[in-house]
Amino acid sequence: MVTSYIHEHGDDSKVDVNGHAFNVKLLCSRAEAGAGMNLKAAKSFKGYRDMKYAKA
Predict the structure, then answer these.
(1) Whole-angstrom distance, CA of residue 26 vs CA of residue 14
(2) How many CB atoms lie within 10 A of CB 54?
(3) Which of 55, 21, 53, 47 lies closest to 35, judged by CA?
(4) Tens digits of per-residue pLDDT, 8-46?
């Protein structure tokens, strides 16, 4: 199980891609949580499952 809190310390950024301008606001905070598990049922069968959730 994983939990984290992220706060971006940045300013607004302008990016031009193929003549299209994008304004990106980097100053924000968000929380994330996730869980995962591995399963080995036989020598030739393995499985993995994870779930993640983020809230800005």
Answers:
(1) 11
(2) 11
(3) 53
(4) 777 777 888 898 988 877 778 889 999 999 999 988 899
Spatial CA neighbour of 7 closest among 23, 31, 25: 31
Q: How far does the chain reach from its first CA to its final CA, in angstroms?
A: 20
Give bridge partners of residue 20 from the DSSP assignment: 17
Nearest to 22 by CA among 13, 31, 11: 13
C-alpha dist (Å) from residue 8 to 17, 25, 30, 42, 51: 23, 10, 9, 44, 23
Q: What's residue 1's pLDDT?
A: 85
